[in-house]
Amino acid sequence: SQQGEEDPQALSIQEGENATMNCSYKTSINNLQWYRQNSGRGLVHLILIRSNEREKHSGRLRVTLDTSKKSSSLLITASRAADTASYFCATDAGGNNRLAFGKGNQVVVIP
Amino acid sequence: KAGVTQTPRYLIKTRGQQVTLSCSPISGHRSVSWYQQTPGQGLQFLFEYFSETQRNKGNFPGRFSGRQFSNSRSEMNVSTLELGDSALYLCASSLVDYGYTFGSGTRLTVV
Questions:
Q1: Are A35 and B35 in contact (CB under 8 A)?
Q2: What are the pLDDT digits (tens) for B10-43?
Q3: A99: nearest CA in chain B?
Q4: Strand, helix or coil at A41?
Q5: Cα B101 to the chain's mean position, in Å?
Q6: A3 pLDDT band (50/70/90 cuts)?
Q7: Largest alpha-carbon pair distance within chain B?
Q8: Residue B34: which of B49, B19, B13 has the closest Cα?
Q9: Which residues from A are below 8 Å from B when comparing CB atoms?
Q10: CB A42 to CB B103 under 8 A?
Q11: CA atoms of B74 and A82, how far apart (whole Å)
Q12: d(CA A17, CA B49)
């Protein structure tokens, strides 16, 4: 079964606003990762949060992890047009080096 | 430093043919993984290689195979192509617990 399932939302926001997307998963994990994909190209690694971490920041990105609820959220603050992309969460369960991806959230930032 | 390089970028093949895709990981990364991305199934794990050994395999038929060379470069092969094999094939390399670096992918179209 696929782990890592984002809320099936397509977000359309104005530049400068914040964008939040959520992800849930089914089993225990070692870490959870967020990736960005522009127009069907390769995935860009954004941030990795380990199972013993609750929150992590990287630039304008803030990720939270709630292992009791098996969920994570990605917040992009002060969005820019260049943030327009699909965002995927992925879990690495059991340290077996295989990522299980969610279906992705399409974010459109309007200039 | 150079990223993950996948060749070719685009490929058009006929049903029944076979295809070989290539991936050169980041220097020093010994783990190479392959993923298939389609609109219907999303991102699915194909297999992972480490030091020339396949460590993990996803739920794909035996027509999908791969290998890794001593310099960590990897190839995947799909034999007897079917229309449903049309997809973006992504390769990723990684160091343990640091997230994955993906290539730009090979867009395979089967006609």
A1: no
A2: 999 999 999 999 999 999 888 999 999 999 899 9
A3: B45
A4: coil
A5: 13
A6: very low
A7: 39
A8: B49
A9: 2, 30-31, 33, 35, 40-45, 47-48, 50, 88, 90, 96-104
A10: yes
A11: 32
A12: 41
